[in-house]
Specification:
heterodimer, A: about 210 residues, alpha/beta, 2 domains, six-stranded parallel sheet, four-stranded mixed sheet, 5 helices, B: about 475 residues, Rossmann fold, 3 domains, 12 strands, about 55% helix, binds iron/sulfur cluster
Amino acid sequence: MRAARDEILATIRQSLGRGPLEPDATAVLAARMAAPPQHPRPAFEEDLTTRTIRKLESRSATVARVADWTDVPRAAEQFRTENGIEPRVVIGAGLAALAWPSHWSWHSGPAAPDAVLSVTPAFAAIAETGTLMLVASPDSPTTHNFVPEHQIVVLKVEQIVRHFEDAWWCRQQTGAGLPRVVNLVSGPSRTADIEQTIQLGAHGPRRLHVILVG
Amino acid sequence: MDLHSHEFQSRARTALHDTSLQQALDQARDGFVAKRAAQVAELSEFEALREAAAQLKDHILEHLDDYLERYETAVNAAGGHVHWARDDAEARRIILDICARVDARTVTKGKSMVSEEIGLNEALIEAGLKVVETDLGEYIIQLAGEAPSHIIAPAVHKTREQVADLFEAAHGGPRRTEISDLVDAARQALRGRYFEADVGITGGNFLIAETGSSLIVTNEGNGDLTQTLARVHIVTAGIERVVPTLHDATLFLRLLARSATGQETETYTTVSTGPRRLDDLDGPEEYHVVLVDNGRSRMLAGPFRAMLRCIRCGACMNHCPVYGAIGGHAYGWVYPGPMGSVLTPLIKGLDLAYDLPNACTLNGRCASVCPVKIPLPDLLRQLRHAQFTQAITPRRQRGALAAWRVVATRPWLYHALERVVARILARLGARTGRLRRVPGAHGWTLGRDLPTPAARTFLECWHHEREKS
Ligand code: SF4
């Protein structure tokens, strides 16, 4: 294994016409890693919240806005009943303290095939493209984002940032660097693999509903 | 996957007469082009992004060894494992060894072109494993026993009627032809497979050196189910996929979806770092990355380095008139269209894929849309040149090219011959206004007529007009 690694690196260097980089050259790269150059970003004037809602809806997600954190269970129940979704739910532990309807059967463990709906706390949203950032943690297991047929994401207005670059700070969130999984979700699951016709609910959630708080 | 590029001419001919294929290609072509154009028109920074992306890729390739080492260190720090594969056989062995060690029986796969490149499915099946492709397009062609015909839309050559037949045979009746029913049928068929998988294999659009992460982009969410629910996650990626930081990956992401499917962003972009952590409730127990060289490190040396900028968006094939007429299978290997016509000869040999660089009109449309500005027509011309200097070009064509050079570098001779030929052709086609057959251009007139040229050449007319005034 070592042999393959060394041979590949040696061939790369030979092709580049040099040996291993000198210490000052690696120092330049290290500095670049610490402070990467700014690449062009799409400029826009639109208000961050308006844009996020508009973009999400353009990709068939739905958005409901509530004033307060305690309104979330009611908004979730409304979405559930309007769409005739069974109340078999997984709720990220980060939201478990809210007063969920008593007729829901729910837990905060990983999603198994019988989970029909999930309720997930967002970590951030990016207004540039209207994209939700969900990060793996005991409060928000990754299976919640893909296994259930329908997903509700709870997002606070102040979590919306302008560009992707503004969201990447999540890597500093924990001492261990990035969360194990960062999911950037821009709508319900879709496919166009048969005759280029867009169809929702390919493998992941068929419906994505965002409850925007604030 | 076996190489069939030497059959290009016969495959292309068959493709032109395949009505289902032509129907499918017609449907695809305009959609991809129009959607991309709409996205580009929306984003005034698009050209600036392309320029920055090309420069960034060149910077990465210039320092590829260093970034790969940094990436490896970061993956290890996150509890993952990096494996290096010099060629396809070594990559297959590494993956088979992992599967054997963890007693794997079922392997689910997200879409990965590198896994096609290394012929992974055949090897896994031969080793007695059950392999399930989970991307809808890949699932369709797996049922059909075919290779992908497009790098981002593997089943683009299939009509819905054909998919309906395949699904009826695989899932049982009744036969359904509604697209929503077909997508649903695949969803139901694959659900259970994700949960029973021991190993989940995905590609890696980008590998982040800073964090040791792999990044995948999908619309369906199948890649995420694959890598989250299997006990072991294996990422397969070419060595050129490394980027320094998440900021740098963002630059490419802004170009990728717009260029590929004409979307502003794909539905799911996922950054994964290492295996399940202590307090995680789900995720794989092991996380492996197989870095595949397979000729790439040598490609860095010569004039073809720019090809390693490729981010596999497929825009070049979507805009290629040749691909649009014959589809992907005619190219005879994993990578079709313009990027494949450069990569296949470089990876598999200039002689074994002789026709590919020559099956191009050098119209330049691919280069004008490539998000990392790869000069594809120039590279194709360089390949032709290399074929010529290495005496791979067939004797008859070499003779013809040599004769052409004699004529083309002597203007007096060129013009004299042109006058003669113009007169002969004008006389031959005087009655009908077109020529059904032209000596020496049999292949060209097989599919179309040549309009009869004017009896006098442009230069003759020009001189005549000048004298008059
Ligand atoms: S060569 Fe350019 S256009 Fe073609 S797939 Fe690669 S990046 Fe896309």
